[in-house]
């Protein structure tokens, strides 16, 4: 056999064996850091999978390593330096499982979050520069990392949740809200109805005051109420609300509205995730 062919074959075998050994060392935890991240990304290594019916969601190892580095850095700068490796990995697994499912649901509903959308959202903060300094100096988080690991997933979570509520009947929440409204129509006392149906009595025990200019969005139905009157059910992201106008005052030619509310919490995002995972098989490879 030609000597060059033999040498070439040996080199190829060595490369394959070294790659196999490197991958094996990653999975056994003997190789970590930048090298492990590079190999995981190049070879699309899996950290785990979520299987449900025909669905197979992949948790990529490179993302797991990135998230673990971010979470470890955050914890070490915020009093969590004594957390052990198992506890750290459990936090990262929970974060990854949720985000992989969110990305799956976002693809299913064609929900997209652009980098520009993240920047636009952050630009609405009262003092973005102060926030950047606080993130970097007090929490030890690079601002670009904050956008990638916190801001973007949070915006995606909000949009996916809103889409889930719009597309899947939250039967329990809707029925509870309707029962509360029907009781009010029958003439039952607002506080009594709240005690029977509200998720939190805080909104009954404490009034909120709003100006005419603030009666927009979910507060808009208050405009048409007479003192002592209650609104129809207002659907908001995460809750169903029935407003009651307690008083209406005029100061300096401006109306001020005192309102209380019956708030029935909608099905949470975590409940949607739990429903999905209850019939799913999670395999942790890494």
Describe the structure.
The protein is 55% helix and 17% strand. Strand 5 and strand 6 form a beta hairpin. With 286 residues, the protein is an alpha+beta fold. It starts with a helix and ends with a strand. The strands form 2 sheets. It has a 4-stranded antiparallel sheet with strand order 3-6-5-4. The mean pLDDT is 85. It is elongated and about 95 Å long.
Write the layout of secondary structure elements.
Elements: H1 3-27, H2 33-42, E1 46-52, E2 55-60, H3 61-76, H4 85-109, H5 115-122, H6 128-138, H7 143-167, H8 171-185, H9 190-197, H10 202-205, E3 208-211, E4 234-236, E5 239-251, E6 254-265, H11 269-277, E7 281-284
Antiparallel strand pairs: 1-2, 1-7, 3-6, 4-5, 5-6
What are the key terms here?
11 helices, 286 residues, three-stranded antiparallel beta sheet, 17% strand, 7 strands, alpha+beta
Gyration radius, in Å: 27 Å
Structural class: alpha+beta
Large-scale geometry: elongated
Distance between the termini: 42 Å
Largest sheet: 4 strands, antiparallel
Instruction: Please provide the count of β strands.
Output: 7
Task: Extract low-pLDDT stretches.
Answer: none
Number of helices: 11
How is the largest sheet built, in terms of strand order? 3-6-5-4
Strand content: 15-25%
Mean pLDDT: 85
Task: Summarize the amount of helix as a percent range.
Answer: 40-55%
String of helices and strands: HHEEHHHHHHHHEEEEHE
Concise synopsis of the structure shown:
The protein has 286 residues and is of the alpha+beta class.
């Amino acid at each position: 056999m030609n000597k060059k062919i033999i040498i070439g074959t040996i080199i190829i075998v060595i490369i394959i064996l070294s790659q196999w050994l490197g991958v094996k060392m990653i999975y056994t935890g003997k190789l970590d850091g930048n090298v492990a991240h590079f190999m995981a990304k190049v070879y699309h290594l899996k950290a785990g999978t979520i299987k449900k019916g025909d669905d197979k969601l992949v948790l990529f190892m490179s993302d797991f390593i990135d998230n673990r580095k971010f979470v470890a850095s955050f914890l070490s700068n915020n009093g969590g330096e004594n957390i052990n490796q198992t506890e750290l990995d459990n936090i990262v697994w929970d974060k990854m499982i949720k985000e992989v499912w969110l990305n799956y649901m976002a693809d299913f509903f064609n929900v997209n979050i652009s980098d520009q959308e993240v920047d636009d959202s952050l630009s609405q903060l009262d003092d973005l520069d102060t926030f950047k300094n606080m993130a970097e100096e007090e929490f030890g988080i690079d601002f670009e990392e904050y956008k990638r690991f916190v801001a973007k997933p949070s915006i995606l979570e909000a949009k996916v949740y809103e889409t889930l509520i719009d597309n899947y009947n939250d039967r329990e929440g809707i029925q509870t809200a309707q029962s509360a409204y029907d009781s009010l129509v029958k003439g039952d006392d607002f506080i009594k109805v709240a005690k029977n149906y509200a998720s939190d009595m805080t909104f009954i025990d404490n009034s909120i005051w709003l100006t005419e200019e603030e009666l927009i969005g979910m507060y808009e139905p208050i405009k048409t109420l007479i003192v002592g009157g209650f609104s129809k059910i207002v659907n908001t992201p995460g809750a169903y609300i029935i407003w009651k106008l307690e008083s209406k005052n005029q100061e300096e030619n401006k109306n001020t509205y005192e309102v209380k509310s019956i708030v029935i919490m909608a099905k949470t995002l975590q409940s949607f995730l739990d429903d999905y995972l209850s019939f799913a098989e999670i395999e942790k490879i890494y």
